[in-house]
Amino acid sequence: MTSTIAVxxxxxxxxxxxxxxxxxxxxxxxxxxxxxxxxPNGAGKxxxxxxxxxxxxxxxxxxxxxxxDVREQPDMVRRSxxxxxxxxxxxELLTGRENLAMIGGLYGIxxxxxxxxxxxxxxxxxxTEAGDKVVxxxxxxxxxxxxxxxxxxxxxxxLFLDEPTTGLDPHSxxxxxxxxxxxxxxxxxxxxxxxxxxxxxxxxxxIVVIDKGRIIAEGTPLQLKDxxxxxxxxxxxxxxxxxxxxxxxxxVTATEIFVDESARSLTLPAGGLADLTRVAQLxxxxxxxxxxxxxxxxxxxxxxxxxxxxxxxxxxxxxxxQP
Length: 323
Ligand SMILES: Nc1ncnc2c1ncn2[C@@H]1O[C@H](COP(=O)(O)OP(=O)(O)OP(=O)(O)O)[C@@H](O)[C@H]1O
Ligand SMILES: [Mg+2]
Prior knowledge:
binds magnesium ion, ABC_transporter-like_CS, ABC_transporter_ATP-binding, six-stranded mixed beta sheet, antibiotic resistance
C-alpha cells in the first residue's frame, strides 16, 4: 500500500430501528499511528468498530481499511486487519497453542507455518510456558494477550482493539500497553476503543471522543486534557486547625487554592511533578502534618464534564454487556 492513510471512517451512521447508535462519525488514521476512540458505556464505540471490521453494515457512510472499502471489498478489508473484540473470543477448554491452531486453521495457514508463527506469538506475548495450559486457568491479562496473539496470526497491518484492558488489574493493563507499544513500533496501525482517558493518553497519537454516537471532541491527548483544565495538587492535612495557616503558606506558590474543610484538603492548580515537590517542601518546612499528597490529572470524567456539562455514569462494571 502506498497510501499513508491506513484507516478512514467516512460519515458512518448506524441505526437500529429508529434508534441512532452512530450518527455521522468521520476520522482518518495515518499508517503506523494509534487512534483512541474514547467514550462512556453506550457511546457507540463497539458499533463503530463492527462497521469498520465488516461485522455490521453501515446504515449510511462507509469506511476504508488499508485502502479497501468495507462495502465494496469486505474480503480485502478482512485480509488487512485483525480484531480483538470486547468479549474474549478464545476457547476456555483449549490450551493457548490449540486456540492459535484452531484459528490458524480457519485462516488456512499451513501446519508448519502455523507452528512457527504460534511460537513467535506466544514468545512475543510472554505466553510460551502458558501455551500448553488450558485457557480456563489463565488470568484476565493472559487471556487478553492470547486474544491479541490470535488476532495477529496473519500479521495484519491494521489492528482493531475494542476495550482491550477493561476489567484488567493495573499490572496486567501496563503489561498489555507495553505489548501494544511494541506492535506499533513494528509498524502496526492501531484503532482502539477505551473508556479510560489514561489508556488513550498512554497509547494514542490522536483521540476522538464520542458520546451518543457523535464525535464531541478530537485532538492529541494533551489538547484534550487542556480542554478539561489543568492538573492539580491535592494535600490532605492531618489536623483541621492547620488548614488556614497551610493555605497562607501555600499562597506563595498558587493564587487559586480550593479548600474543602470537611475533607481537610487543599487543592492547587499544577503544571506537573515539580509543583507536587514544591507543595511538599512548603508544607514540611511549615510543620504541617500531611495525611496524603497527590498530583491528580483530569480524568475522562473531567473531560466529559468540561465537554458536555455532565458526568459520565460512574461504573466499575466489568461484566460483559454486549449482545
Ligand atoms: N444490535 C443492536 N440492536 C439495538 N441496539 C444496539 C445494538 N447494538 C448496540 N446497540 C445500542 O447502540 C448504542 C451503542 O452501543 P455500543 O455497543 O456501540 O456502545 P459502546 O460505546 O461500545 O459501549 P460499551 O462501552 O458499553 O461497550 C447502545 O445504546 C446500544 O444499546
Ligand atoms: Mg463496546
